[in-house]
Amino acid sequence: MSRRTLVTGLLVLAVIALFAVPLLVDGGTSEYGGTDAAVTEQLEADGYTPWFDSLFSPAGEVESGLFALQAALGAGVLGYVLGRLHGRRRAAASAPGRDPR
Q1: Would the pTM of this model clear 0.90, i.e. be above it?
Q2: What is the pLDDT of residues 7-18, one digit of tens each?
Q3: Residue 30 has pLDDT above 80, yes or no
Q4: Sign of CA dihedral 16, 67, 56, 59
Q5: CA distances from 72 to 10, 40, 56, 78, 80 (A)
Q6: Exposure letters 43-76 (e unless 16+ CB within 10 A, then b)
Q7: C-alpha span between 19 and 12 (Å, rounded)
Q8: Residue 23, CB-side half-sphere exposure with 13 Å CA sphere
Q9: 76 with 84: CB under 8 angstroms?
Q10: Which of 87, 82, 84 is nearest to 95 (CA)?
Q11: Distance CA 65, CA 63 (A)
Q12: If you average pLDDT over every residue of the chain, what do you get?
């Protein structure tokens, strides 16, 4: 086993441990709630009423699917822009008589 393989394996185990250890230490007793829900509960307890209601309230699975779609579209746009910029730089560098900066 090479040193590079060993280091990669140890890094993968360290990342897995970063996620697994807190869950194992907790024992599943705490509730992992989002900050949005906590703030909403606090505001409603203080008597705050929202200005308007949501026009569209999807189910939990649909909501997380829409969020994943939004993330995928954003990643696609970012990848496209970075690819175009990289292609421009590569084309400018290969053009004769051009400064590759």
Answers
A1: no
A2: 999 999 999 999
A3: no
A4: negative
A5: 30, 28, 21, 10, 12
A6: eeeeeeeeeeeeeeeeeeeeeeeeeeeeeeeeee
A7: 11
A8: 6
A9: no
A10: 87
A11: 5
A12: 87
Distance CA 10, CA 58 (A): 42
Do residues 94 and 101 make contact, with C-beta atoms less than 8 angstroms apart? no
Structure tokens at 67: 């969020």
Are 98 and 92 a contacting pair, CB within 8 Å?
Answer: yes
Residue that the structure tokens 């007793």 belong to: 29
Tokens of 90: 């590569």
Q: If you average pLDDT over residues 16-38, what whole number do you get?
A: 80
Residue 68 CA to residue 5 CA, distance in Å, equals 33
